[in-house]
Amino acid sequence: MCHVIVTCRSMLWTLLSIVVAFAELIAFMSADWLIGKAKPSSSDDVDNRTGGTQEPYHPTLGIYGRCTRISHMQLSRRDTLCGPYAENFSEIASGFWQATAIFLAVGIMILCAVAFVSVFTMCVQSIMKKSIFNVCGLLQGIAGLFLILGLILYPAGWGCQKAISYCGPYASAYKLGDCSLGWAFYTAIGGTILTFICAVFSAQAEIATSSDKVQEEIEEGKNLICLL
User: pTM to 2 decimals?
Assistant: First the structure.
């Protein structure tokens, strides 16, 4: 019989697991890993609202995507265009970034699988006599290691030609040159830290759902157990 067990700690772990998976996925897909040096506005870059020249813009570069400003042939304005610069995996700008993409993708897939499974932990608390919380916590720890490897390798690719075109000639491995780090990089770091917090907190979720009070309510014949 399925017993639906909801506790404060198990729900918090489930929510954190979902948030971490989405945060890492969004960061991976974003082009805002590197913010390039400012590109000066030309005389054609006129702000239609004020009539003045627009502020210099900063192109951004991600692991496989980029955002840049393009000019229209017949209109006195420019639009920002975002999309992948690499049509396939081999076209990613650096071998280090290819490795980063692999490690991050594997880590994110594990996190997404755990996030999916975590939703069902309210009803299923064990698999083959093993706590599903502990299994998920172990997987989150493994995913965190993949994410760390990816984030360590990513700065090694700052010396590639693509990064130099955005960050200037002084850019090299682990040196930003004229670039700065974008929100996607910091989000990936924050998500990695939260991944390990989730891995540790999964043990607390397991303790909460197997406590003596929960067992007492199961013995009383209750199918819905809510302990906040």
Answer: 0.83
